[in-house]
Please model this.
Amino acid sequence: MSASSPSDRPDTVYKILLQSDWKSWITQPRTSLPNSPYTAQLFTGAGIDIKDGYIHLSTAEQSSGTYVKWFSKNNPAEPDNNGQEQASETGGQSLVLVEISLAKVVGRVEWELAPSRGDYFAHVYDGGIPYILPSEEGSEFSAVLRVWEGADVKKTLFDKLAAEGR
Model:
């Protein structure tokens, strides 16, 4: 599903992170959530997000291209043509894929054209993505729906999510 028109824009998007960015997110001090009595770990961006001034997100269909363009060469879980793990160009750090409900994001979501990709991508401005463990009170305010880590995060996962239309 392309996100080129408003009717094609899903409620669920994805964020690909380095393991260190995920660890920073889930171990940071909790922040009060607007319109809620609860607190959460609020992800306000990784390096490229902070540099650009917004959090980059992708639809299921877009995630595969984002992964290939920015992450696959650096992913030690991605097999090469011989079925062996590739050496990472950045030290072999594992990846994390986070599925996110846009309805629960704090701040404003703008769908903006990425000319190099010819599609509109979700960007979060002036806020972040709240995470509350599913077992905790207030977890209904968490924007994080599912998380995949390490060896599970490779092209076949992105292709599966796109095929499911998630």
Remarks:
- Helices lie at 19-27, 47-52, 60-70, 155-164.
- The chain has four helices and eight strands.
